[in-house]
Amino acid sequence: MPEGALSRHLFHWKNFKLEPFSWKRRLNIALDVASGMEYIHTLARQSFIHQDLKSSNILLSDDFRAKVSDFGLVTLVSDGGKSIMTRVAGTLRYVAPEYAGNYHFSSYIYMYI
Questions:
Q1: 17-26 burial, b for 16+ CB within 10 Å, e for fewer?
Q2: How far is the C-alpha of 107 from the C-alpha of 28, rounded, in Å?
């Protein structure tokens, strides 16, 4: 993707001589990510849990449209399931404390991390 990872624009913008994002652009990116998560949770043929949603796994197009990437830890949700039991997966800094502490967690699939 032409603009690279979201993390580059949020945390390393000075190193790459980039302009900080406006609040409007940040909101549009958040909405794009939420739409992507809604798609994999409810609108795709089969529902999935991403398990590693973080700024380095959000890629930006040339017009700053956000796309969710890195589906290496994805978990399939059984038909009709509103929650799943799973082991801790993903990047620890981005895992909810209650999830990391219990080593398994039953969560609603509508979580937006």
A1: eeeebeeeee
A2: 26
Does the pTM of the predicted model rise above 0.85? no
Q: What Rg value do the Cα atoms of the chain yield, rounded?
A: 15
Catalytically annotated residues = 52
The verdict on domain 4-108 having CATH code 1.10.510.10 is yes
Q: Do 49 and 41 touch, CB atoms closer than 8 A?
A: yes
The two tokens of residue 8 are 């580059």
pLDDT tens, per residue, the chain with 113 residues? 899 999 999 999 999 999 999 999 999 999 999 999 888 888 888 888 777 888 899 999 999 999 999 887 777 777 655 555 555 555 555 555 555 555 444 443 334 44
Edge-to-edge strand list for the sheet holding 4-5: 4-5, 58-60, 66-68
